[in-house]
Design goal:
binds cobalt (II) ion, binds 2-phenylethyl (2E)-3-(3,4-dihydroxyphenyl)prop-2-enoate, 171 residues, five-stranded antiparallel β-sheet, alpha+beta, two-stranded antiparallel sheet
Length: 171
């Protein structure tokens, strides 16, 4: 089931999400609905709070070189913790909760993350490149943060100006 995505400046996007404690059918339903929602909106990552559920759950599905996404590449991430990070990198990010705005964000280049599967099994991943960026972007959502908060002062000004204009046009 495709769910509505919360859009900036919805206050719920600032909520701190709480850890998942039950790896049950309601969690599985949430993850399935999140996947339907992400795929329907051409996303590569989505956190539960973006569909209004304040739980520490996120999904990532990176496209291949041709831009195709496959169900077998879906990563479901519950209660993630960054154990280690190294280096820095810049990438032009976007977010389903900030539609049609893209800007450069600095993040760690390499990370080691602990998380749990939908069945409550512990996993660890070491990653860099786009996957490391996606993990950090989605994990920020769990603590109520959006990528626009990481922009330089001037770029944030540019964002706020463009967003206000867009809201005016929509009225
Ligand atoms: C987060 O972002 C991310 O503005 C996922 O009109 C960002 O899926 C991971 C999207 C950067 C890795 C690198 C945004 C779709 C999707 C839009 C997304 C839009 C339509 C964003
Ligand atoms: Co996002």
């Amino acid at each position: 089931m495709v769910l509505p995505i919360l859009v900036y400046p919805d206050k719920r996007l600032k909520e701190q999400s709480r850890p998942v404690s039950e790896f049950d059918s309601s969690l599985h339903k949430l993850l399935d609905d999140m996947n339907d929602t992400m795929m329907a909106s051409n996303g590569i990552g989505l956190a539960a709070i973006q569909v209004g559920v304040p739980l520490r759950a996120l999904i990532i599905n990176l496209p291949d070189e041709e831009g195709n996404q496959y169900p077998e590449n879906l990563i479901e991430v519950i209660n993630p913790v960054i154990l280690e990070k190294r280096g820095s990198t810049t990438y032009t990010e976007g977010c389903l909760s900030v539609p049609e705005y893209y800007d450069d964000v600095d993040r760690a280049e390499w990370i080691r993350v602990e998380f749990y599967t939908r069945f409550g099994e512990r996993r660890e991943i070491e990653t860099d490149g786009l996957l490391a960026i996606a993990f950090q972007h989605e994990m920020d959502h769990l603590d109520g943060h959006l990528f626009i908060e990481k922009l330089s002062f001037l770029k944030r000004k540019k964002f706020e100006k463009e967003w206000k204009k867009k809201l005016k046009e929509k009225r």
